[in-house]
Amino acid sequence: xxxxxxxxxxVLTRNIGDPHAVFYCVGLMAKRQGILVGTPSEFKQxxxxxxxxxxxxxxxxxxxxxxxxxxxxxxTSLNPDQxxxxxxxxxxxxxxxxxxxxxxxxxxxxxxxxxxxxxxxSDMYLPATLLETxxxxxxxxxxxxxLWVSGEHGATKESGELYLAFLGRIGLKPEHLxxxxxxxxxxxxxxxxLGIHASHFSATRLNRYERILESFxxxxxxxxxxLAGASRLVRLExxxxxxxxxxxxxxxxxVAGPVLFTYVIWVLQNAQKQGLNRIYFLARDGQILLKIxxxxxxxxxxxxxxxxxxxxxxxxxxxxVGVGDGSFLGWALENTDFLSPRxxxxxxxxxxxxxxxxxxxxxxxxxxxxxNLGRRERKELRSLAxxxxxxxxxxxxxxxxxxxxxxxxxxxxxxxxxxxGMVDLGWHGSLQHSLEQVLRETKxxxxxxxxxxxxxxxxxxxxxxxxxxxxxxxxxxxxxxRNYWAEPIMEVFCAADHGLTLRFERKDGRxxxxxxxxxxxxxxxxxxxxxxxxxxxxxxxxxxxxxITWEPEGLRRPIGALFDEIWNEPTHEEAEAWGTxxxxxxxTESVQRxxxxxxxxxxxxxxxxxxxxxxPHRAGWAAAGLKRSPAILRYTLPYAVQFxxxxxxxxx
Length: 652
Description:
The protein has 652 residues and is of the alpha/beta class. Helix content is 51%, strand content 12%. The chain is built from 28 helices and 17 strands.
């Protein structure tokens, strides 16, 4: 008995999505070295054509790489030396890009232990010496194993002749061989026709996110092909221990990883252009971004200081606002899905127990302090906030917290006069605005803000120096037309493992953040460690190539396509895994709800009335919520909403 394995996309795979991207990279390197006159895309097509011509000329059997480049020289004006140089370049790129499929390593080891050896059978034009070297490097090939490559034996698995030649050489009957591979024809159907036991291995096939990235390969100088390859390698790193973990890792590697990696590359490149030697990543979104930046900085040559700065709307806005004119009301009474007396008062540093008589005067008894208020009760809350005594009390609390905040900023180096950048996802620039208000009083350098996206509302803040990567509605730049909601997606991707920053206090001789909870237990129980681990694995793999020059501005369209796919077309497994993330749109996080709650009767009726899918809460993920809803709603609600939309048009 003997077990045999295919090589490419079974025990080894490339660090790119589609094998043809190798040819693009050869063309790219050849162009840089002055060997080619045309574009990398043109070389890629010529290389594909040369292989086709070589196979047609060869006839029966298989070909070697040298034959392909001989025909390439005939199709172009390349001289023999140039053709050999390109051939060597392709082998070097292939060798550098080959990675082990780790989830198969145990199977290979078990097969060798059972039968004494294993065999590797490959339909490939590359030399066997290159493949054996890589297999040995990764501990997959041992003395006593066999490697048969079609180009060196003049026979292929696809025709069945390589199997027959191999079995004849070692004197083994077909039924005593068990083969494993990714190609349904050459690794499964053909060996079964010959009486060989065969099983299909499909894990290396690109998933839909990786196919999206690969489709932009030529438009991005093969950058998205490397992103697709990195995503696949993360998936192949280990077997997920549950369907939820599998869905978390797949989206983390295929969507979150490419998006966050590209954004951080953009931040570091622009910080270099601005001459900034220090960048603060603001909590909590900045936690994973900082980890990514520390991996990327050496590859980009950024030598500045990268720091984490505890921040939140809760801890920065109150100390910074002017309350004498009631200007704090805009954010303190923000009309979120959930607003209770307690959540409002927490925003301004107070608690309902200290204001019980005032609250009772406005009809807000103890029983209302922790429940969501209706429209009339919210008006009463605003009336309370307009009272001079209340404003005076808030002003006192704000002044106290301002001194604590400034002391924290000073210890973190924000007030030392050095130019610095700050990284915040977005969306209205409120944290930079708060920081600028206090820094103007201290007369130190104002920050340069680096955002993923900025809304039109950010224009009202009159921010200082600020840039946005994915979209900037102030300037009318970037991806402005979006049929997905990038903001909650990014907030979930950038969740942190600690709780909300409430304020700052001195402890053990240093200013420390006071957190609502030391650990973000609900997010950790959901699977945050799995998500962050997969993202960081992706970044390390994406950085492990020297062929690509990263140009983030050219990657906005692929990122938009990824957002579109996950937001509008989640699978049931993705909806169940990601839709259960504990999400809150309230700055005090008084209430957390599942990001994609299933639709109920009321939500369904509201959606039909409005003529559009309206999820149970404001930041909800409608498509995923529908996937998690009862079957009758999953199938009927989309048609009912279309009918509601048609009715609204008729009435209007």
